[in-house]
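Before surveying the methods themselves, we first show a specimen of the format, giving the amino acid sequence and backbone structure tokens:

:::
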Amino acid sequence: MIWYALLVAAVAGERVAELVVARRNERWSTARGAMVSGQGHYPAMVALHTGLLLACPAEVWLAGRPFVPALAWPMLAVLVAAQALRWWCIHTLGPRWNTRVIVVPGLPLVTGGPYRWRWLRHPNYVAVVAEGVALPLVHTAWVTAVVFTVLDAALLTVRVRCENRALTAAAGPTAPSTSAPV
């Protein structure tokens, strides 16, 4: 249980690092006339992701979930891969990456890194989904994994539509129908 709590704390620390990067990038974008969209769903996103970090150890402790190595090790590998993908996205988008939907008008869509594959339009959210399944299952917190996944699917539906609209609006009338998140 202690090792799992430390793992969840490490993921929480990673999230804090993301927020630091996001704040810096928000200043960069704002200085360039950025448009901010989707303010309504952002508090729900913060609450859901905070809830994941609290529910994982709570379920393990309250429900006495066992550590099952045959499940834990593959899920830990998925979790590490999700973090790598997330930071690849952050690095590829550079100052355009944010936890909020912030788009600088006139900038071309990012087509490098994980955004080069047209079949994977939102790789950052693949990382979010993978993390939301894997982190709880490292210690068999299956209720948390299911509840987070269902709620996150609803939230990501709203988020992806919001991002696509924002990118299309920022690019003007000739914007492509596919886009990379900002």
Q: What stands out?
A: The chain has one domain: 2-171. The domain at 2-171 is CATH 1.20.120.1630 (Four Helix Bundle (Hemerythrin (Met), subunit A)). Helices lie at 2-30, 42-63, 69-93, 123-137, 142-171. The mean pLDDT is 92.
